[in-house]
Amino acid sequence: MAHLENSFKLIDIDNNEEILKTKYNFDDIITRNMEMKKIIWQCKKVANSQSVVLIQGESGTGKEIIAQSIHNYSDRYNKPFIAINCGAIPHNLIESELFGYEEGAFTGAKKGGHTGKFQNAHGGTLFLDEIGDMPLSMQVKLLRVLQEGYIVKIGGNKSIPINIRIIAATNKDLKEQVRKNQFREDLYYRLKVIPIYIPPLRQRKEDIKLLLEHFLKEKSLKLNKKEPKIREDLYYKIINYNWPGNVRELENYVENIVNFDGESSFILDDNEKGKKTIYENADNEYICTLEELETKAIICCMNKFNRNISTVSKVLGISRNTLYNKLKKYNIEL
């Protein structure tokens, strides 16, 4: 029981911190990608709506930034924004976390009871992060709240009306989870009123340079260091890497670079999962030969690095002699 009480004490602390962390606005989203601009337009359009928003996207794409931006753009901006990670809370605590409990609801319940997230978010926004990890037993109770607009605390019998905007987010394929009976179909469609899909960074290549420049300035300021210059070969790798961890991975990698004055303490692994841009539409596109791909890669590097043989050979991972042989083989001019 002491463990349970300590858990709720931590929950109370988290409630206060979560309200303070509502700091992001649409202006904080750095992009020139047309799909992202469309998403921002859609989010602004529905910011004052009461409808549920379901944000889907891979880890690190910025789902909470979108959620906070919607909240701060809405009429609820000066009301609470309460975030809960549905996958981080033990299953036996999540109901108490969301609904709260009355005094004496169970042995060890604290005097005066406990106010849940639904009530804490009254008038504002409740952000249900990692909704795909919510246990099935809790999903049916969430569905009832969405349908009826009120909650009942554990150990209580009073219906408490709530006025909140719900934004849910997940990095999982909820449709696939429904098919596997891991997520309720009725809840899925109840959440999917305004679906927002954030594309991974590998589909927003034009944003990598912008984000790199932004994070270099931000991390240099944070670490009180001079903004470093990045070697051409490392810059090329950063721009062309597929970033399976998306914006968050890029941000952390840049912080590593700033700490090491323009170098990096580890090498980006080209075999990381997520490297699939070449294959994503392979069924519908012409497949190049290896020689064609090699020729294009060499020409691209030659143009990128002003035909500097040393730099081009390093970026391509081959010796200078091998590069000279390939230039001759493919009739590429120096």
Helix/strand-derived category reads alpha/beta
- Largest β sheet strand count, sense and barrel closure: 5 strands, parallel
The number of helical runs is: 14
E-strand count: 9
Which outline best applies?
elongated
Strand content: 5-15%
Strand line-up in the sheet with most strands? 2-5-8-1-9
Explain what the structure shows:
With 334 residues, the protein is an alpha/beta fold. The chain is 46% helix and 10% strand. The protein is built from 14 helices and 9 strands. The longest helix has 19 residues, at 2-20. The protein is elongated, with a radius of gyration of 25 Å.
What's this entry about, in short?
The protein is an alpha/beta fold and 334 residues long. It has helices spanning 2-20, 34-45, 63-73, 91-99, 117-120, 136-148, 174-179, 185-191, 205-222, 232-240, 246-259, 290-304, 309-316, 320-329, and strands at 53-56, 81-85, 100-101, 114-115, 125-129, 150-151, 160-161, 165-170, 194-197.
Notable traits:
five-stranded parallel β-sheet, ATP-binding, 334 residues, Sigma_54_int_dom_ATP-bd_1, sequence-specific DNA binding, two-stranded antiparallel sheet
Secondary-structure blueprint:
Elements: H1 2-20, H2 34-45, E1 53-56, H3 63-73, E2 81-85, H4 91-99, E3 100-101, E4 114-115, H5 117-120, E5 125-129, H6 136-148, E6 150-151, E7 160-161, E8 165-170, H7 174-179, H8 185-191, E9 194-197, H9 205-222, H10 232-240, H11 246-259, H12 290-304, H13 309-316, H14 320-329
Helix pairs in contact: 9-11, 10-13, 12-13, 13-14
